[in-house]
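Section 5.1 Outputs to date
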Amino acid sequence: AADGHSGTVLMTDTAEETPIWFGSSGQLFGILSTPANPRDDTPPVLIANTGANPRSGNSRGAVTIARWLAANGIASLRVDGTGIGDSAVDTGERGRPYSTQGDLDVTAGIDELSRRFHAPVLLLGMCSGAFHALSAAYDDHRIGGLMLVNLQRFVWDEGASLSVVQRSTFRTTRFYMRHVGNPAVWQRLVRGKVNIGGITRAVAGRVLRRVVAATDPILAVLRRQETRVGRVRRKMRDLRQRHVPILFVLSGNDPGLDEIAEYFGAQGRQLRRQPNVMFRLLEGADHTLSAHWARETLLGLVATFLRQRCSLVIDTGEPAPTVARTPPTRLDAVFVRPVAIDTTGSAA
């Protein structure tokens, strides 16, 4: 159809939701949500894919966010990346999170929103979607703000395994420290039901990487070249100097906590000091924010971010109180419960 329109439009009380094709050859599919009462000069939001999940997101989270944005006069585009959902299905290609193609798909979404709205674009992504959003922001000056949820990696080596073994098999260092005094855990340890060797190796590796990060300036001088940690820190400083506002959200026991600690100190203290960064922890939330209260709390944080950091007028969706809600934990899963990762449509 002309202008990438697929011909079918869903009208709601607050928005017009239009399926569109976009990209260099019209190979990407998405849902464009245009508010019934748009605000002047309000930047649109690109909602990136989460792993191999289609445009609806985990628990239809992307749909909820898009309709909430529309109720506040903000347009959005939620997309299917290449090989995901309805995008380029005829090629037989499968979606590949953390790939160069994922970066290109995000850029295509930015191109489309820039063409339609002639305004800076805000990016929102969870897990691998957050990775691709951040990667795009490093070099694309059309991006006016970032909303990053449960980012797992600042750097991804092309061709690396998506299994992310260390991250998916063992819980966060923070989690282990919280439970080290639990008598029931020690009882399981005595019975041989805790993989103490694997946990020790995982935690020791994290500690070593934090030590290396702490000594990064010295290592850079000795090597006479910029290190991996130094490169990430420089790019984040560049975003600060460009005044790109960033909402950085992590679940309370998410593997992303160890990732950010390895680049910016415990709970990202160096990053949190940047004036352009709003950092929040969602205690008790899982990686995919599957609980209704977790998604509602995220909307509250997004509302606060858009008001305080992006100077947008938000009338609905007042921030929900951030309450520490830790669900009951089965002790036989405490120390070795896998974390969902970006390998299938049901993972994050």
